[in-house]
């Protein structure tokens, strides 16, 4: 499976662009570039019915966040607090992510 170039990383704040949670903001818990998906805190929640087992002796209904496709979320710039596309530019010999709207450096990439 090919890696998908994603502009969001673990810890970024993103806004959901489409789907049942459109407009909601949350923090990226997990980024999965191999699958092109992200898990966002408080977004895309589903209920899972579990039977009692040794791990969870009571069982019941669990609510958890499920992965969603990375193209459905957009990074929120920490400087201007707006949803923005991401630019990549070189600063002091290192590639960094920058906000397309205000031009501020978001953080450093590897």
TrEMBL record:
Query: What are the coiled-coil residue ranges?
Result: none
- Identify a single GO molecular function assigned to this protein: structural constituent of ribosome
Superkingdom classification of source: Bacteria
Query: Which GO cellular component term is one of those annotated?
Result: ribosome
User: Per UniProt, which keywords does this protein have?
Assistant: Ribonucleoprotein, Ribosomal protein, RNA-binding, rRNA-binding
Q: Which Pfam families match?
A: KOW, ribosomal_L24
Q: What does this protein do?
A: One of the proteins that surrounds the polypeptide exit tunnel on the outside of the subunit. One of two assembly initiator proteins, it binds directly to the 5'-end of the 23S rRNA, where it nucleates assembly of the 50S subunit.
Quaternary organization:
Part of the 50S ribosomal subunit.
Listed name of the protein: Large ribosomal subunit protein uL24
Species of the source: Selenomonas ruminantium
């Amino acid at each position: 499976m090919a890696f998908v170039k994603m502009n969001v990383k673990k810890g970024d704040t993103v806004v959901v662009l489409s789907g049942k949670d459109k407009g909601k903001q949350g923090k990226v818990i997990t980024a999965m570039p191999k699958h092109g998906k992200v898990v966002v805190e408080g977004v895309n929640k589903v209920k899972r019915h579990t039977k009692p087992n040794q791990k969870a002796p009571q069982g019941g209904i669990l609510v958890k966040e499920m992965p969603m496709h990375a193209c459905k979320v957009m990074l929120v710039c920490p400087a201007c607090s707006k949803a923005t596309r991401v630019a990549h530019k070189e600063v002091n010999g290192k590639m960094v992510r920058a906000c397309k709207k205000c031009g501020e450096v978001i953080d450093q990439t590897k």
